[in-house]
């Protein structure tokens, strides 16, 4: 069977949740919140997927303006297909969809941190995250 890559091909919420579980990314995503999962799929600007025999085995899901910044919010590859080049190809195809000045930006899972520098990403220590339970401070200073 051949591996097939697709750009913005429909993915069901169940397929997405299954892939997250099978890639270990489900440990860091709200997979129990179906409405959130549906929103993540529905509101993505760019999804590059990998299919093997009709099964979703990889996905690069991004939010982007296509010209300056592309946030690669999920890079998931099924455990039985990891270390086969699928993740690299998903990122390569994602980057090919973007304009010539567009940067690919992501937050690495702790276990994958070394992977990204190995394939050419530059580390940027200036990332900041504001969780939903936190509020913007109104304090001056």
From TrEMBL:
This is GCN5 family acetyltransferase. The keyword Transferase applies. The lineage of its organism: Bacteria, Pseudomonadati, Pseudomonadota, Gammaproteobacteria, Chromatiales. It comes from the Bacteria. Residues 3-137 form the N-acetyltransferase domain. It comes from Sedimenticola thiotaurini. GO terms for molecular function: acyltransferase activity, transferring groups other than amino-acyl groups. InterPro entries: Acetyltransferase_Butenolide, Acyl_CoA_acyltransferase, GNAT_dom. Keywords: Transferase. The keyword Transcription regulation does not apply.
